[in-house]
Amino acid sequence: MVRKPYKHHKKGVGRHVQLPEWLQATEAWATMPPGPRALYVELKRRYNGSNNGNIILSHRDAAKALSVHRNTVGPWFDVLQERGFIRMTQAPYLGPSGIGKASIWALEELPTTDGKPAGKAFVRWRENKTPAQKTGHPDTNIVTLRSKTGSGRA
């Protein structure tokens, strides 16, 4: 049996973003709106396998990549941080020449380059469920009162 010759210029699968099933099964991911999910995928796109904790993504770049206004992505970063999916390793600042430096992020599902283990805070995140409020028509809770002019009987 003759084997096929190996293709020297064979193209591989290329880059891709993995979202593990265990991450998607968490309550934090399941209850998250689509905007922050898209932002998380964009952050993960910038992860190359060895730069966790050094992922650079500004609000403007994120807005451009997701085709939304730059003021829209700010709350999405907040949602991802509060649910424990990402952590800011360096805040944005103005450089010495007055040129702004973007935020630097770490994905919490993976260990960082400085040796810190993965935090995985999103696994422990739970949605705050407020107790059910009494709703309904105000007339449903009417209590019969004695009439002032009546005989005093209810």
From TrEMBL:
Sequence ranges of Polar residues compositional bias: 141-154
Renumbered residue ranges of the record's region Disordered: 128-154
Highest taxon, organism lineage: Bacteria
Record-given protein name: Helix-turn-helix domain-containing protein
